[in-house]
Specification:
Elements (H helix, E strand, L loop, with lengths): L25 H30 L5 H6 L8 H12 L5 H33 L5 H13 L6 H11 L6 H8 L2 H14 L2 H9 L4 H12 L1 H16 L3 H6 L8 H10 L15 H31 L6
């Protein structure tokens, strides 16, 4: 008796194109096409304006109007644009940038001194009115900053600080979002057992915070510092209301003075050298400090944003 073995049947395979590749179908192509369209849209929407701003100072105002939108001019035009910007009101732009740096750095330091301990207290300690304070912090964080300008102005006026640099620095340092970031960091990252062990060893609450909780908060402290610096640097309405003198203006308010001195935006300005190239260059110069801070702090920012991913 002989036994015959059936030859195993091969499973049907999809037809292959040249070199063994699967044939190209509409279903496999349209996601890639859609991805290219979306990326192209965002490139046009975000990159093209930035590229135009980078190229505008190298051209004359006439070339910007009648020439190609994304063309490079000349270095001589760039030097002329630089001279026009720096000669505006006797180097006023550099004064405004210095004011912005002063306001932002001092406010950042005060925000760090207040936000990190406040976030620790809300997250790791138990006291009366803890939940109402956390709720108020969230509500204030969600409020538009423009709605607080009038109450803050009345408060500074009552304290006799209106018109001074502190009328800008103190509201900048009031940063509930930083408190909330510190709160979520401590809740998600620092374990109660670690702090309880230090308390059992005889450490006071202040020693627990200073020697254990504070060193662990370096990533979130860097994140709070950067976000508060950018928030303070980009503020316009509050310093515009608080400060009476243009010599005290930060960069963002000073740029509005630059616009009002241009006949493009103010018909009563008369003859002025402040045109489109000068405005673009001034905007670029005022953006450089934030860019430099970001380049040096990006590693700490990534650590701060991912530090609360796991607890322990």
């Amino acid at each position: 008796m002989t036994t015959t073995l059936d030859t195993p049947r091969r499973s049907p395979q999809r037809p292959r194109g040249a070199r063994g590749r699967a044939p190209i179908t509409v279903a496999s192509v349209w996601p890639k096409v859609l991805w290219v369209i979306v990326i192209g849209f965002f490139l046009c929407f975000f990159v093209v304006p930035v590229l135009w701003m980078l190229l505008a100072p190298t051209r004359t105002d006439h070339d910007i109007v009648v020439g190609a939108p994304l063309a490079f001019g000349s270095f001589s035009d760039l030097a002329n644009t630089w001279d026009n910007v720096m000669s505006f009101q006797n180097h006023a732009l550099m004064t405004w940038i210095g004011n912005s740096a002063l306001y932002s750095v001092v406010a950042m330091v005060i925000a760090l001194v207040t936000c990190v301990p406040a976030g620790y207290a809300l997250a790791m300690t138990k006291f009366r009115l803890r939940k109402p304070l956390l709720t108020i912090t969230l509500l204030v964080m969600l409020m538009p900053s423009a709605t607080l300008v009038l109450p803050l102005y009345l408060e500074m006026d009552a304290l006799g600080l209106d018109g001074s640099v502190w009328s800008v620095i103190l509201p900048f340092a009031f940063y509930p979002f930083g408190t909330y970031l510190a709160y979520t960091y401590y809740v998600a990252t620092v374990s109660d057992e670690l702090l309880d062990a230090a308390r059992m060893d005889g450490a006071s609450e202040w020693q627990v915070f200073l020697h254990i909780a504070l060193p662990l908060a370096k990533p979130v402290a860097a994140l709070v510092a950067f976000l508060n610096f950018v928030h303070s640097w980009n503020q316009f309405f509050l310093p515009y209301v608080m400060l009476p003198s243009s010599e005290q203006y930060p960069a963002q308010v000073g740029l509005s003075n630059l616009l009002t001195a241009s006949p493009l935006f103010n018909s009563s300005a008369g003859i002025s050298h402040i045109l489109r190239p000068e405005i673009a260059l001034a905007a670029l110069i005022t953006s450089v400090p934030v860019l430099v801070v970001f380049l040096f702090a990006q590693r700490a920012l990534v650590e701060g944003m991912t530090a609360g991913a796991t607890k322990g």
